[in-house]
Amino acid sequence: MKPIKESKLLTLALALVLALGVLSASIAVPILCRSFYYAQIGPLGLEEYTGLNEEVIRQAYDGVLDYCTGKTETFSAGLLPFSDSGESHFADVRNLFLLDLWVLGLSLAALVLLLLLVRRQRLRPRRLLGRGPGFWGAAGLGGVFLLIGGLAALDFDRAFVVFHALFFPGKDNWIFDWRTDPVILILPQDFFRNCAILALALVLVWCGVLIALDFIISQKRPAK
Q: Are 217 and 132 in contact (CB under 8 A)?
């Protein structure tokens, strides 16, 4: 039988794929889980703030999400009007959402392919400094997002502006006028803050799981 070989490259590839998978999946949850938004309509006081009933708010949100997740090719905000500038911003958002979903799909496919390669070629990821790919992928991703989350917590308003400057460079169409794009009234900054908190929490939970699994595996490995 062919001996098992350890591969440093496999360790790095698995660490990267796991980090991308955890990150893209954590971002995808608030995007795809519409009940997360619905549950906030009452606590955020959106009906009182906008003067719209919950059904109209849901329809508007669903129209935006259907477009941004690629379910429809034409932008809609339900019964609410919108401007060309507002529509163009949601086209940019659509590109980011679809990119995240593509990264999630490709990272899962890459993980399956790497595991098949491990089995067929009898490879094993080399443990670097005594730790495996799950640990390094989680430690790197978790460390970065703890830093980002800490900075955002200090001044979320500033973080919100920086985020848009980074991901929509040279554009100001994300600055809405509620009179021409009333959809912005049902998407308050507090909602985006809650989305960021959920995504960060999911990243940290999954990173914790990967690190814990690595320690469990290391304890079960026979001493050399």
A: yes
- Token pair in block for residue 113: 């392919």
CA angle 64, 69, 73 (to 5 degrees): 75
Q: Which single residue is written with the structure tokens 């609410």?
A: 80
Query: In this structure, is the dihedral angle defined by the CA atoms of residues 33, 39, 41 and 45, taken in order, positive or negative?
Result: negative
Looking at residue 175, the DSSP 8-state letter turns out to be: S
Domain that holds residue 155: 5-220
On whether the CB atoms of residues 124 and 6 are closer than 8 A, the answer is: yes
Distance CA 166, CA 188 (A): 20
CA distance 58 to 68: 15
- 0.90 exceeded by the pTM? yes
What is the helix (H) or strand (E) element at residue 124, kind and residue range? Answer: strand 123-125
The structural domain count of the chain equals 1
pLDDT at 26 over 70: yes
